[in-house]
Amino acid sequence: MSEQAKKPIKITETVLRDAHQSLIATRMPTEFMLPIVEKMDQVGYHSVECWGGATFDASLRFLKEDPWDRLRKLRDGFKHTKLQMLFRGQNILGYRPYADDVVENFVQKSIANGIDIIRIFDCFNDLRNLQAAVNATNKFKVQEGRGHAQVALSYTLGDAYTLEYWMDTAKKIEEMGADSICIKDMAGLLVPYKASEMIAAMKSATKLPIQLHTHYTSGVASMTYLKAVEAGVDVIDTAMSPFALGTSQPATEVMVETFKGTPYDTGFDQNLLAEIADYFRPYRDECLKNGLLNPKVMGVDIKTLLYQVPGGMLSNMVSQLKEQNAEDKYYEVLQEIPRVRKDLGEPPLVTPSSQIVGTQAVFNVLMGERYKMATKETKAVLRGEYGQTINPMNQEVINKVIPGEERITCRYADLLENEMDKLESEMKEWKQQDEDVLSYALFPQVAMDFFKYRQAQQEKVDMTQADTKNGAYPV
Q1: Does 434 score more than 80 pLDDT?
Q2: What's the 3-state SS for 31-71?
């Protein structure tokens, strides 16, 4: 084999973020991560995804940790490996759109504290909602020489999502100044031969490197990676085997073995990977024992492919029906989901659009009349607050749900005033670092509870005596 033909596949390791987010609700604490960092740093990963997504909220809310502190500690440990995060466009890591000054500040602080690659996505693939984050990353890169903006496209199926659509969008992403593209297949809908076709088409449309991210939910992910790599994809996302498969990613060691001795050989050391897996395995067993890891999420859920509905959205829907004693309506709701999705302009189903479509479908079925009652989120989507969808929304539904209301056609963030000064003045008595303002911006109540807890710890308050309900801590 000539040197020319070699194209080692690059790997992003997800065990410190998406793998545990997908399997154990993002509950892996920083203290558990740190002892294995040195070994992980020797593997030769393209990057390690370790921040963003739900880690920020879970750290503050459940683990009583400062997420910024986690990032700094991981940065200290990883001397040779790039660190990566997931970023929800204008929503940052929260659930509402923020003003551009908050987005810019958050990007700057993320890179300054140790992030190299920011993967930015929008639940509608509305590129206008990604531009501020890309610009902020590029600005930092010019000033400090660090930072990489990766735009992630939420993969979905539907008449409008043709190869031309993906190719055109790839071109636009290159024009907006991104450094690379990720195909983010959050529901495991991308099947092997479609992956070949899509990668080849996008490669013909852009010079940017292309990364593929998928989940094992529907059981095809490893085969999808195989075909994507053969078609020329540059990077794939995998997870160490104890936290792989199920709703997580394909296993790192399996993909490394698959490409061994081929032009795509990673060159990774399987003995080193085995040591890392040995470290995570007892923790996985403990999570199974204490119920944090539900064996249900480890299997194949073929309904994902049949109904094109992500696993998390299905379980959400089942629990909503259970609460209403309406589990017999399950199949009716499943049939209603694609109709609601079509009414709302056929958006990809990913947080938060998946929850909005699912909940509205449940209401439509239970009320016996479609859109008799609409959630405030459905109204916001119809108003245009979440951005532009690929297809126009159903005018009849608009007339029924928000009659006579003005709709937004610009980028929603253009209507927002700068927020940083106001946010800082609201929480300044608790501020110990600039990053605290951003924690407060994203999760005001949760951050305040954390700041009070932190102060109590620093002043060595006896927490058993503290009146946490009313936030009174004896000093």
Answers
A1: yes
A2: HHHHHHHHHHCCCCCCEEEEEECCHHHHHHHHHCCCHHHHH
Q: Which residues pair with 197 in a beta bridge?
A: none
Q: Distance from first CA to last CA of the chain, Å, rounded?
A: 71
For the residues 293-300, what does the mean pLDDT come to? 90
Rounded Cα gap, residues 370 and 35, in angstroms:
54
- ∠189-121-57 over CA atoms, to 5°? 100
Copy the structure tokens of residue 309.
Answer: 């509905």
Q: Using CA atoms, how far apart are residues 15 and 237, in angstroms rounded to an integer?
A: 10
In whole angstroms, what is the distance from residue 105 CA to residue 301 CA? 40
Distance CA 115, CA 253 (A): 25
**Which pLDDT score, from 0 to 100, does residue 125 have?**
97
* Residue 73: Cβ-neighbour burial (10 angstroms; 0-12, 13-18, 19+): middle
Handedness of CA 130, 132, 136, 139 (dihedral sign): positive
Q: Give the model's pLDDT for residue 475.
A: 39
Stronger pLDDT, 299 or 468, i.e. the higher one: 299
Euclidean distance between CA atoms 58 and 56, whole angstroms: 6
- Residue 31, both tokens: 């203290």
In what helix (H) or strand (E) does residue 84 lie, and over which residues does it extend?
strand 83-87
Kindly tell me if the per-residue pLDDT of 72 is higher than 50.
yes
Cis status, amide bond into 338, omega within 30 of 0: no
From the number of C-beta atoms within 10 Å of its C-beta (0-12, 13-18, 19+), residue 32 rates as middle
Neighbour-count burial for 186-222, b at 16+ CB within 10 Å, e otherwise? bbbbbbbebbbebbebbbebbebbbbbbbbbbbbbbb
Residue 37 makes CB contacts below 8 A (sequence gap 6+) with 74, 77, 78
Backbone dihedral region for residue 180 (phi beyond 0: left; psi -120 to 50: alpha; all else: beta): beta
Provide mean pLDDT across the span 402-417: 96
Q: How do residues 136-174 score in pLDDT, each as one tens digit?
A: 999 999 999 999 999 999 999 999 999 999 999 999 999
Task: Label each residue of 2-27 as H, E or C.
Answer: CHHHCCCCEEEECCCCHHHHHHHCCC
What the block records as the tokens of 9 is: 């596949």
In percent, how much of the chain has pLDDT > 70? 96
For 324, phi then psi, to 5°, come to: -95, 10
Largest interatomic CA distance in the chain: 71
